[in-house]
Amino acid sequence: MTSMATKYSLSFTVFLSLLLILLATTSSGAQAIKAAHGFSSIEEATVHDIQRAFKQNQLTSRKLVELYLKQISRLNPVLKGVLEVNPDALYQADKADHERKFKAHGSLSPLHGIPILLKDNIATKDKLNTTAGSYALLGSVVPRDAGVVTKLRKAGAIILGKATLSEWSHYRSNAAPSGWNARKGQGKSPYTMGDPCGSSSGSAISVAANMAAVSLGTETDGSILCPSSNNLVVGIKPTVGLTSRAGVIPISPRQDSVGPICRTVADAVYVLDAIVGIDHYDNATIETSRYIPKGGYAQFLKTNGLRAKRVGIVRDFYNIGNDTIAAQIVEQHLKTLRKQGAILVDNLEITNFGEIYTSSNEDIALAAEFKRYINAYLKELVVSPVRSLADLIAFNKKNSKLERLDYGQDLFIKAEATNGIGNAEKAALVNLAKQTREGFVKLMTKNKLDAIVTPGNIVSRVLAIGGFPGVIVPAGYGSDRKPFGLCFGGLKGSEPKLIEIAYGFEQATKIRKPPKLTT
């Protein structure tokens, strides 16, 4: 015969079991059970999730790094998003864990103890190589950390390793596919196993496949926005000069920008907050620092960020080919923007749109600038087998068999043939400034726009030649199941408005989903 106490005990056990089952059927319930049993998965874990797990003693930085290293070991042989893993990553993790014990949690940066991957054109003065994916710089020694790396270390971030890229940031050969470099081979989008887009391909592949918490990429023209679009992640291409380019293997300081590639807008903003600001090795950051808002960028993560924003629609950007599914999704998103309070100004035109996208001005200017600045970068290296663009060309000719696939080096050869900023280059630069002034700037000011919105990264050329910022957010999948994003672009220093708009859109749609990987 069962006693009264036993009956109550059994009833409570049954009740608790039913409650746990009920909780598990809801997203909040799943989070509650996860919280009760500790941090169990890195899949889609945000910076906020990780910091909360740190605070609640459910996770350590060491354990987190070990989880990412395991994920890299499992997925990277196929995806090739990571070029090198930092042999000191676990040491840095232990250091972060030690610091967390003796410092108040609120006094630490949001990136403290967070593993980050850096595109392999961003210099680190440590055991990692900085090679732009080329054998030519393997074993070279940089004079110091890149400016953005110095800031990341100060914020307490863990340098997990280097991400792959299109070799030389896709400025070696037009024939080379996006995501390919000699050292690692062909990177692949985890969604399609195809084109990851470049040149910050590995940075996007890695965070999309949960091989890192967050990452850094660089853009000269499309190299953050395009891989973010193709890999269903968030990318921020900052105003040129807002983030330091010192210690970054250059193409052109006039267009080069360093920015975050992450899974969420919030994570990207936390990284942006950590890396902006003055660096005396990059004078452009001194002038551009006036754009940085007091209190940083995280304050603009507002769910109602779309309210009363004037957003322009230039239909020339909406040619999505024959992909009717993508076109329909984009139109639905435009309705969402309106529903969230945005004022859409439709059927606008950039009067010189055709000229911007067909002229050779950008190519002419970049060729001369690349030769000048890559020579300066190579000469400053402490140790290097190559000291000039001419040396690089000779190295590639001599070692073509080493690379397995030789896509040539037509862009290198074209750049080497230049002789400084001559009459042709000066004319090209004047034309680029005119195209910007009479095109995008006129469009934005005349219509009093906060931003324009475009599908994918087609707007990157306009933003690139003017040094303007852009934020791209996951938008969905086309008819071939290829991911794409929605891009918001604005004038220099408009990051606060772009962040409000992008975050408002992200929170209203929540398109981002992890890839279904069977590797």
TrEMBL record:
Signal peptide positions on this chain: 1-32
Keyword Zinc-finger annotated: no
Annotated region described as Disordered, given as residue ranges: 176-195
Keyword Transcription regulation annotated: no
Domain Amidase span(s) in chain numbering: 64-455
Record's keyword terms, sorted: Signal
Coiled coil, from the record: none
Transmembrane segments: none
Name of the molecule in the record: Amidase domain-containing protein
Organism the protein comes from: Lithocarpus litseifolius
